[in-house]
Amino acid sequence: MTITWRRLGASDFPLLRRWLEQPHVARWWNHETSAEAVARDFGAAARGEEPSEDLLVHLDGRPLGLVQRCRLADYPGYRDELAAVTAVPEGAVTIDYLIGDPGQTGRGLGPAVIRAVVERTWEELPDATCVLVPVPVANRASWRALEKAGLCRVAEGELEPDNPVDGPAHYVYRTDRPA
């Protein structure tokens, strides 16, 4: 099993749109799914006009999912919201992720993708000190994937949910750069 990724491009938007329409993704990724909305929401990162990275993840050369990665310092409002719940050190990075194909869920691929992205974060972002990931308490599959990937729950608190149907209760997971 080989996990690779590259920056998401505009030519990937139709695939991403299909993934965002899948019920298992739509439940937690509250996005409009029109072609215009996907281009609006993901276009700036795809063009390198935004500091975040949208990474198209592949499993053995076939598209599997998406990982968003960013330095929290590049998004001060989000960093400050998270800092009300847990310590956010200089150099902290966060990720978000999805497995697009429902047939690929429940097979241990989420933890494998998270582990791979975290390991490469240390190489690709030399100033990264830790990875912090907030996840809604109700999203058990997501926080279990983080635990299986080796992240530790370090906090619980209220954060603005991505999907308004969710309450504000979140867990925050963390892993630090290896010594």
TrEMBL record:
Residue stretches making up the Acyltransferase MbtK/IucB-like conserved domain: 6-49
Segments crossing the lipid bilayer: none
Swiss-Prot/TrEMBL keywords: Acyltransferase, Transferase
UniProt cross-references to Pfam families, sorted A to Z: Acetyltransf_8
Keyword presence, Transferase: yes
UniProt GO MF annotations: N-acyltransferase activity
Recorded superkingdom: Bacteria
Pathway(s) it belongs to: Siderophore biosynthesis; mycobactin biosynthesis
Stored SUPFAM superfamilies: Acyl-CoA N-acyltransferases (Nat) (SSF55729)
The keyword Transferase appears for this protein: yes
Alphabetical GO biological process terms: siderophore biosynthetic process
InterPro entries to which the protein is assigned, alphabetical: Acyl_CoA_acyltransferase, Acyltransferase_MbtK/IucB-like
Role of this protein: Acyltransferase required for the direct transfer of medium- to long-chain fatty acyl moieties from a carrier protein (MbtL) on to the epsilon-amino group of lysine residue in the mycobactin core.
UniProt name for this protein: Lysine N-acyltransferase MbtK
Species the sequence originates in: Nonomuraea muscovyensis
